[in-house]
Amino acid sequence: MEVRPGLDPAVAEVRRAVRAALAGLPEGATIVAALSGGADSLALTSATAFEAPKRGITVLAVTVDHRLQEGSAEVAAAAAAAAEALGLAARVVPVAVQAGAGPEAAARDARYEALDAVAREVGATAILVGHTLDDQAETVLLGLARGSGAASLQGMAPITERGDGCRILRPLLDVRRETTRAACVAEGLQPWDDPHNTDARYARVRVRERVLPTLEQELGPGVAEALARTAAQLREDAEAFAEMIDEIIEDVVEHAEAGISLSVGALAASPAALRHRLIRHVVAAEFGQSLTRSQTLDVARLVTDWRGQGPIDLPGCRAARVGGRIEFTAR
């Protein structure tokens, strides 16, 4: 146990999580800490301010002002001031949230665009965000309720590599929300409570305030941890499937006129899970479209239940069995 005399256990837990995340970064790196002012991001920023100097890492705390609520500029300024009091450089970035998408998704997109822009400007190798184990459990439950498949049930990864030299780090995915709040109390930090986090119009809030507590009450404690473990296991499975697809894709794919094709024999010899992933992978890679499970099964029946049925219309393309291959052609 690394808790030193006088060090609050919650503070120690958050610092250990951040230390482990920073260990994967080069010494002397520059990183961006996303700071909303809430308990999760404030505890994360405080721990980062403590741990980063040990590795010579420069930290810029960035607060995105979505300008969706009255007084948002003052909230953002207070968050930046808290970061500066912790010894960090801080910046507030106002953004315009685009109409059209759902408000949560639109705000998230605007937030990440702003964080990305700052990260590029300062040459950051990582952006740290404060998602906790509770956020992970909520994400898995929402994905389960929407029936959106294993990809959404994987939840959020601790590290998201993006191919631009800057990764997203989520150090607190094994830390409970109550721990981040306790860490703020122990360090005398004053988090901001976003009123959107208690607005029952949002599905995530209903999951947080009603669904998860009911599950804990009816099934016993540990539901959130179990959901987070499930997400981790599904990510491991997905990584294994991705490696299998990379190994065999060149052997089963051929370019066809106006499209691409898959070998019927190879698909028939593959387990159903791999067969379905190959079908989805090809459509996504070639046509930039995602297939539902129903659409995927329709294509798979061209392999497993072939009775001379005609082409299948899919998003952006059409699938048809031609001899020993399944051809996907643009519509």
From TrEMBL:
Signal peptide: none annotated. Its EC number is 6.3.4.19. It comes from the Bacteria. It is found in: Cytoplasm. Pfam families: ATP_bind_3, TilS. GO terms for molecular function: ATP binding; tRNA(Ile)-lysidine synthase activity. Keywords: ATP-binding, Coiled coil, Cytoplasm, Ligase, Nucleotide-binding, tRNA processing. GO terms for cellular component: cytoplasm. Residues 31-209 form the tRNA(Ile)-lysidine/2-thiocytidine synthase N-terminal domain. Gene3D superfamilies: 1.20.59.20, HUPs. ATP binds at S36, G37, G38, A39, D40, S41. One of its GO terms (biological process) is tRNA modification. It is an enzyme of class 6 (ligase). It catalyses: cytidine(34) in tRNA(Ile2) + L-lysine + ATP = lysidine(34) in tRNA(Ile2) + AMP + diphosphate + H(+). InterPro entries: Rossmann-like_a/b/a_fold, TilS/TtcA_N, tRNA_Ile_lys_synt, tRNA_Ile_lys_synt_N, tRNA_Ile_lys_synt_subst-bd. Residues 224-251 form a coiled coil. SUPFAM superfamilies: Adenine nucleotide alpha hydrolases-like, MesJ substrate recognition domain-like. The keyword Membrane does not apply. Its main location: cytoplasm. Residues 262-326 form the tRNA(Ile)-lysidine synthase substrate-binding domain. PANTHER family: TRNA(ILE)-LYSIDINE SYNTHASE-RELATED. Ligates lysine onto the cytidine present at position 34 of the AUA codon-specific tRNA(Ile) that contains the anticodon CAU, in an ATP-dependent manner. Cytidine is converted to lysidine, thus changing the amino acid specificity of the tRNA from methionine to isoleucine. Belongs to the tRNA(Ile)-lysidine synthase family. The N-terminal region contains the highly conserved SGGXDS motif, predicted to be a P-loop motif involved in ATP binding. HAMAP family: tRNA_Ile_lys_synt (MF_01161). This is tRNA(Ile)-lysidine synthase. The gene is tilS.
